[in-house]
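Checked the freezer inventory, then went back to the computational side. Two predictions to log before the end of the day. The first one is the construct we discussed on Monday; recording sequence and tokens without edits.
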Amino acid sequence: MHEKTGAPPAVAFTSVVKTFGDVRAVDGVDLRIEQGGTVALLGRNGAGKSTAISLLLGLNEPDEGEVELLGTSPARATRRGLTGAMLQEARAVPRVTVRELVTFVAGRYPAPLPVAETLELAEITELSDSRVDRLSGGQTQRVRFAMALAGNPSLLVLDEPTAAMDVEARHVFWESMRAYAERGHTVLFSTHYLQEADDNAQRIIVLDHGRIIADGTGEHLRRSVGGSLVTLDPGALDTATLKGLPGVQSVHLADGRAHLRTQDSDATVVALAHLGAIRDLAVSPASLDDAFLALTAPEQAVA
């Protein structure tokens, strides 16, 4: 990341708690994100991602603790045009063109980007004269991205930004996002596409049950759960036997297969061979998906 030395953090959560009834959606979170670079926020449905985003944008107030953006409150940061957001839910505005909409949004900010530059950054210049309510789902997402960029925010927050986009559109979008981050801005995004986080985030934060359970680069998260993944048909082997194999750190059952995270795949495979358990076996490096599953899913017994 290209952090701005001496500058206040882009995001600072201090002992933040937010509850809804008996549910602690955000449970004592301490978080500091320096200015500059790209950060991904991951978590299962209900992990607290959306609540955390609503708190940092000032859409909700914490029950306990403090949230600051760029050295001030979320409300002040928004009024000063320091933050821009692309949220999941937004309705298309009828009977206006893309250019008209982006021009209107830019006019609400004190120091916006030129409209032509915003359209170019979001790669929607060719859509500028199209009506917003006649765009495809993927095109509409790119227009929402342009609206988030329009004020030239120091902090850009993207909540599931590539939903409804096809593979090509997602590729174009991430090129645009990286280009904006390279200008020295901070980009924080949530996504269900773990490969997107691995490819585009310099830092990945994992939330579960309202708490931060992992924080680091994609490589750091992969190493934290073991260097390799060994999968096989477990047959009659029980969980205790599989967990006792050399190098094995954890065992997970999914789709009738045993998934063994191991720091020494060679030793694990040799031990399985001695047990006569080489059935439909595969060995692969740990992926971010593997790390995410290990961090957020409880171990399950092998039948």
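The second is the one RB wanted added to the comparison set:
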Amino acid sequence: MPTDKNRATAAAILPLVGGPDNVTSIAHCMTRLRITLRDRSLVQDEALRALPAVLGVVEDDTYQIVLGPGTVARVTPEFEALVEEARAATPVTPVTPVTATAPTGPTPHAVTAEDLQAQGTALKEAQKARNATPFKLLLRRIANIFVPLIPALIGCGIIAGLNGLLTNLGWLPAVVPALAAIASGFMSLIAVFVGYNTAKEFGGTPILGGAVAAIIVFPGVAKIDAFGQQLSPGQGGVLGALAAALLAVYVEKWCRTWVPEALDVLVTPTLTVLISGLVTLFGLMFLAGEASAAIGTFADRLLATGGAFAGLVLGGLFLPLVMLGLHQALIPIHTTLIEQSGYTVLLPILAMAGAGQVGAAIAVYYRLPRNGSLRTTIKSALPAGFLGVGEPLIYGVSLPLGRPFVTACVGGAAGGAFVGLFNQLGVAFGSTAIGPSGWALFPLLDGKSSVGVTLAIYAGGLAVGYLVGFAATYFFGFTRQMLTDLNTDPDATAAAAQPSREPALT
């Protein structure tokens, strides 16, 4: 049974993160189980990476276990249930991992996949320490608002794409209006969900954040004038909802500092909604609407006038953003573009970074024919890489190797330039939802041209990313010393290091 498999995975993970007493919060995004820990030292990283279902581990503001799309959504509830069951029973004392005794003498040691993963983790921790600035921490909090919305965005986006296909072909005309309603319902109310999650993330009452954000999509706002202009339902979109709910959080906290406890249940919610609502109607909706329009105009002009160069820059720099975990801060921009035009033109270009990463990993595989450990890691991570899950290849292969990470970025830049060039030539297209990339993005593509042309351009961009990432890594991704150090069979080296059990010849 699939449920048994998912529960077994959760049961295998739990003791390796220090047990239920070491887990303070649990969440998940598209690919990762995100855990907040009491004591990081209790986590057994190598044992976690060795689990068949685990594609990699990443340490950021939370401890993140990469399980892949689909799997993480099934394992997380089982993991939560195990933690709750353990806490309801006799408390379990976390077991401190046993520290291995250092060998008494030097042992020849080849570079293995485990070594590279450890280097990747160390690099990640160093980057985290250097990048824990207030601004970047704020971006991560904003990402936390939108990540839970991604499954609905994907589902509605695919239905919207199917609806567009049926409309263009003239098939099933009786079904098209139903699909349109299903695809558009969530997007028409996304501001409410953004407001709810914003208040939750920043320490307010979630339902009050949702209530204030709901003002933005209320049809009756069309009767209100602000700044000499008539408001329109949805004006400001998700940016306005985020700002309105954030304001509600601060108003609520301010009220709780002076409202007597006996009146708190009546006064605080009323003042929170009233004050925040008035500011939203007569300020935030207009300002957020202008900001949203500016984002859409900038994205269109950027790709229309400098598409190839813009694609080169965006595709080349996206992997470092993924490495830092800041790529999800782009979700509000993607969502704003989807609200305005039905798709985000940026996502297909940014997805080329994953293609460069895949090409680089394949080149590493062929350049190191005698490093069985690393080649096994690459073989196991490549399927996820083709589907747009790049963390296992980044942290297990290219980043700790150094040069292949740079050449992977070169491949992403080439693919991005290819897709951007066609945007510049007038063949604009994008993704109707956010979340997937790689091959998984094909069902979400939509644009001004025919479906065949759109799919062909995106496929061409992937091919360019694969080929350039491969070539750049194959020819420029290694120094001679790197090839000497890495191109060794770890098992053979370990065997050579063991003392011989044959009798000595005399």
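For RB: Confidence is low (pLDDT under 50) at residues 91-108, 492-497, 499-506. The chain has three domains: 1-92, 137-292, 318-491. Let me know if you want it refolded.
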